[in-house]
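User:
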Amino acid sequence: MKKMILSLIIAAVTLCSCGVNVVNENKSESKPVFIRYDHNAYDNGYIYHYDDMYGSMSDFVDFDTLEYSPLCAVPNCNHNTSSCSAREIGSCPLLYNDYIYYFVSNSEINETKDNREFIMNAKLMKMKLKSSETQKVAEFHDCIPDTHDGFVVKDDVLYFQADDMNPQQDGYGNFVYSEGGGTHFLCSIDLNSGKYTNYGSIYDGDKQYEAANTSSSARLMGIRGDNIYIDYSFMKEEVPEEKYMKEGFLLSKCFSHVIMTFDINNKTFTETQYPNISYVDDDYLAYYNESDNSVIIECDNEEKVIPDTYTSFYGLILDNKFWSYPDENIWYDLSDMSKHGKGHDGDILGYYNGKYIVKTIGMNFKALTEEELKSQ
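Assistant: Predicted structure:
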């Protein structure tokens, strides 16, 4: 996990609308960064996004103090209007060097006298941490970024997944579109020059299945060396409605997975042999083996098997310990492969100064030792 989080030092977190100051201690180094919507974790902090009565909000949780503050540096802002910076930056902002990066996008139908056209607009914006001043980094019109599915930054280049929104036009000229199905691209933006690149479709082998046309998706899972790992999933057949009513039914098991890698140097996609993966970095790779319902973790040139465990979408490895989604209350110590039950009452956010940071009910946070984690 340590190589998948951004090396940042949080210099100050102030709870009086002064914002969060972030300084990159190693600007001369180029460490890969991986951030995703459900685990937007940094070395000593976490971005927590939530909805309240005023809309959406992004707070930064300081692991030193376990206090949180809106990602807004506008003086005297009360943070309850859409003009607040913490509400403007969306559900998955990226802290990098002295800026917050975030996407703004929309799609619409452009109707003229003779034609209807599906239009896409997307911008990458950056906001100064100390002042909340914003400026545009790049703009493009061939796809819409899917900010829930992860970002990778390597050598000051931001890589992300984006969709063509799968626009379908009926006989009357009306459009129906969504993030499911269609074509999924891998794209990048150079954070220094603003250069935008679309590397093309991640995978096209699902196009033979009609159900994939509305069910496919692609998620960035992490980076190992110079290879970005991407989980491409789709359904080969529609799921009958009666199946949803059966006890123990898991829709996620109806999806096929293809794991692709993208070589940053050669700019090429390669299909791997993995059936699916839930976690990857330079030290670990975890994937689910459906044939015997186990999770296999590659680490230290060996394979470790966790039997009778189902992990979907994302796993988490911190301090040589594995948490399995959807039941994050169960975790495994990879040093001795011991299984531990529901020893805590919240979500694991990170590992900091020898303690596990846990979010409990509401906006409450704890820093627990391993023994405390087991006994909670």
